[in-house]
Amino acid sequence: MKRFIFAHFIALFSLTVCAQVNNAELPDPKPGPQEAWQQVKQPKLGWGSIDVRYSRSQVPTTTHKPPLLRAWRGERVSAQAVLATPKELGEVSFTVSDLKSGKNIIPASAIKKYFVRYVLTDIYNNRKDSFLLADRLDPVETLQMEANTTRPIWLDIHVPAEAKPGTYNGTLTVNANGQKLSLPLQLQLADRVLPDPSQWAFHLDLWQNPYAVARYYDVPLWSQQHFDLMRPIMQMLAAAGQKVITCSVISHPWNGQTYDPFESMIAKMKQLDGTWRYDYTVFDRWVEFMMSCGITEQIDCYTLVPWHYRFDYYDCATNSVKELACKPGEAKYHDFIVPFLKDFSLHLRQKGWFDRTYIAMDERPTAQMEAAWQTIQDADPGFKIEGAANYSVESEAADRVDDISVGFQYNLIKGEALARRAAKGQKITFYTCCNPDRPNTFTFSPPAESAYLGWHAMACGYDGYLRWAYNSWPEQPNQDSRFNSKSWYSGDCYLVYPDGSSIRFERLVEGIQAYEKARLLRQDLNLKGAKQLDEMLRYFAPNVYKNDTDAVTLLRQANDLLWKLSK
């Protein structure tokens, strides 16, 4: 009977809500002026800029001259072309040739191809100013184009690590209703190698939401279908250098702030004799799955200090789910948490995961983190702690947090604190979320701001970057990036789409790669080169990003310097 009851409790985790998968773009509530289309007689193709989000309804400004693409071996670089048509087209498709440098070839198979799709957004929750914006990268092979519309095309070139240095040339060809349009493509390749993302030092921590995937695709939670659908999404994250697996060890650790709330991956049952039993089936399957996707370094468990201060469990005596309200420092909190952590510690050690597991706390007051830390010590002093802090972290309490993240707009950490943490093997990252307004990764954020973040981490001596939402999708993420309430700005809760990447995610990876290249270059730069790099980095260091900051110009100068130092 107990086994049946407990199995029933576990089954609660398998509930899903139906969702209709819909990829059609919405009408543009604010189309641009149409007069310029009268001057366009035939479909035209040109190179655009990866710093520009091109309007669907306006004639774009483009060039036939190929963009200046420069890369290390093993790096990935992006380019954006733009197709505009004054008349309706049937199926539009495009191809990219092999890139050739003499006898050396970068095969076309190394180039990922996307049509850029439009999603609804607004700026800072101004719903009266909603409009369509280019962001979603769709790997679909063909699409239809209406008259007087623009369609960006995104190329993501993954340079093989074994490619030979040189200047490579190729061709982008679009088949527009039988008419072929072509553009030259060129890539300069340096004699430097960027390691595989699994070897990057940059500590990337984007929180995953498996519950959003099950709801969106309307599949049973933790079914084989669910894992199969999640695999490409999580492999894409691993390819960005992700280090952390996000685990929810209580229900609604953030008070259900996302469209799809996080449920507990660990079931807790109070038996008739008052002792506790824990089931780690879901937790184990999730961690093992994420490791199989290539994310293996760290397991973050949220949280012992939830925003709502409530913990649910299954009570055998009453055959019901009950809720315990308590806070760190209270006796009933200690009596509930300590048995769980002792059992959890034993389980993690048996799995060989204890040394990479962190008990995580998010934006909680220092006093409560201190009280929770003491409870953790009583259970197993070997547990590591992870925490995000929306206040200054130069304190004794912060020194107990093995992996700490500070908000972009809060006080920068001084050099001596950075050195002290580094000497103890402790990490420090920074994060953005619903703030600051800039720089950020909202759908309406300038794309260059995503790349800026990696440079900021390097300039400040941080180990990496944290963001609270990798794929906490709203109801229809492929169509509408606005959240269902005014809680979060458009795109705040997700960086990728159910079936593809985004412009802002690709630019975020660009900044992470720049961090890695600067780190590797610093190891063998002469005094002059090191001074030049330090001079450039100081422009990225302030934690106040002025609205008139031109990230595009700044990034261009910084990337020019990296290229010069790479030779």
What can you see in these coordinates?
With 567 residues, the protein is of the alpha/beta class. It folds into two domains: 35-193, Immunoglobulin-like, CATH 2.60.40; 202-261 and 279-308 and 328-566, TIM Barrel. Helices cover 26% and strands 27% of the residues. It contains eleven helices and 24 strands. It has helices at residues 2-11, 210-217, 224-238, 281-292, 331-351, 366-379, 415-423, 448-460, 503-522, 527-537, 551-566, and strands spanning 44-47, 69-73, 76-85, 89-96, 99-101, 104-106, 111-121, 131-138, 143-145, 149-158, 166-176, 179-193, 203-206, 244-248, 267-270, 276-279, 298-302, 310-315, 320-325, 357-362, 384-389, 403-407, 427-432, 464-467. The strands form five sheets. An eight-stranded parallel β-sheet has the order 13-24-23-22-21-20-17-14, covered by helices on one side. Strand 11 (166-176) and strand 12 (179-193) form a beta hairpin. Helix 5 (331-351) packs across helix 6 (366-379), helix 8 (448-460) packs parallel to helix 9 (503-522) and helix 9 (503-522) crosses helix 11. The protein is globular, with a radius of gyration of 25 Å. The N and C termini lie far apart (71 Å). Mean pLDDT is 92; it is low at 1-20.
